Amino acid sequence: MHTILRALTVYLVLLTVFRISGKRSLGQVTTFDFVILLIIGDSVQPALLGDDYSVTNAVLVVLTLIGADILLSLLKQRSRPFDRLVEGRPLILVQDGLPLQDRMNMSRVDEEDIMEAARKSQGLERMDQIHYAVLERSGEISIIPART
Amino acid sequence: MEPAGSAQESSTPAAPAEIHEDLASERRSWKIERAGWWIMAVLVLLGFLGLWGGGPLSKRTISTPDGRLNVTYERFARVNCLVEIKVQSAGRPSAAAQSDSLVLTLPNSYLEKTLVRSVLPQPSYESAGPEAVRFHFARNPGTRATVVLRLEHLVAGPVTAWIESGRPGADRVELRQMVYP
């Protein structure tokens, strides 16, 4: 019983903390983000297993986490408000070459992030070549180039 | 007219229908995020100060009115986390050796929820009673002695214990701890 409660608690806490930390936390993994993710993984492992390193305990933890993930995805599918709560929605950050500054500030995205995404995904050089830059739910920035 | 180079206006009336953004919901989300950051900061600060165990807010020393028995312990602890209880007991210079032994008594209800990792110094012997276990330590009569117990709590929740030194009921202090999961 304790194993399952621990696993569920850790899962929900991580979900909440990452949701509160904003979309950008997982969308683009920089070296800094990678270090954080690595350390978080090591930090929660003892809380999940406790003193019990048996195969049974490990399997219970894995099944609980996967089960919680499946349940969450079913809930998201069935309930739009819940889906929005957990995943959020895409957000336009640049329209027709013009950055929407207050949205970018609140999302903690700067023009350099957008230009990096534009170069990587579309090979664009300038902001005015962007029709839309969208901050996706995953935290990635997708670029729709202007039609020439 | 918007200034060239950036748009301060945050609504996009011409957004394509297929990009399902919802700015009102996004703004609510941002407010909740900011509130969440403050809550996280407060939790970390309280943790630094020791409210969740291990820090100035957690360390506590209690004594008998005459100061003969002092116990320093962690008021806030966590499950499976090693904590220390330091017991200092003053001897009775005029007492005979047998009546001035250092005997620590811990209730069974406390010991059942903890795992005692070490007792320093080692007790000469332990005796189990219906309500408590008594740890007997050798000491020079009339001298002040210190015993350090290192233990782990196994069960979360509030815990109360009492520590006696010497004859039952002679010097006694009560410990209250909150053990977090």
Oligomer: heterodimer
State the order of secondary-structure elements of chain B, H for helix, E for strand: HEEEEEHEEEEEE
Largest interface: A-B, 23 and 27 residues
How many helices of chain A?
7
Give the rounded overall mean pLDDT of chain B. Answer: 82
Order of strands, widest sheet of chain B: 3-11-10-5-8-7
Q: Could you please describe the fold and organization of this structure?
A:
The complex is a heterodimer of chains A (148) and B (181). Chain A has 148 residues and is α+β, with helices and mostly antiparallel strands. Chain A has helices at 2-21, 24-27, 31-49, 55-78, 80-87, 101-107, 111-122; strands at 91-95, 98-99, 130-135, 141-145. Chain A has seven helices and four strands; from the N terminus they run H-H-H-H-H-E-E-H-H-E-E. Chain A has a four-stranded antiparallel β-sheet with strand order 2-1-3-4. In chain A, strand 3 and strand 4 form a beta hairpin. With 181 residues, chain B is an alpha+beta fold. Chain B is 17% helix and 40% strand. Chain B has a six-stranded mixed β-sheet with strand order 3-11-10-5-8-7. Chain B starts with 22 loop residues before the first helix and ends with a strand. The interface between A and B is medium-sized, with 23 and 27 residues.
What distinguishing features does this structure have?
A: 148 residues; alpha+beta; four-stranded antiparallel sheet; 64% helix; 12% strand; B: 181 residues; six-stranded mixed sheet; 2 helices; disordered N terminus
How would you sum up this structure in a few lines?
The complex is a heterodimer of chains A (148) and B (181). Chain A has 148 residues and is of the alpha+beta class.
Secondary structure elements and pairings:
The complex is a heterodimer of chains A (148) and B (181).
Chain A: H1 2-21, H2 24-27, H3 31-49, H4 55-78, H5 80-87, E1 91-95, E2 98-99, H6 101-107, H7 111-122, E3 130-135, E4 141-145
Antiparallel strand pairs in A: 1-2, 1-3, 3-4
Helix pairs in contact in A: 1-3, 1-4, 4-5
Chain B: H1 23-49, E1 59-63, E2 69-74, E3 76-78, E4 82-89, E5 102-107, H2 108-111, E6 114-120, E7 125-128, E8 132-137, E9 145-153, E10 157-165, E11 171-180
Parallel strand pairs in B: 3-11
Antiparallel strand pairs in B: 1-2, 2-4, 4-9, 5-8, 5-10, 6-9, 7-8, 10-11
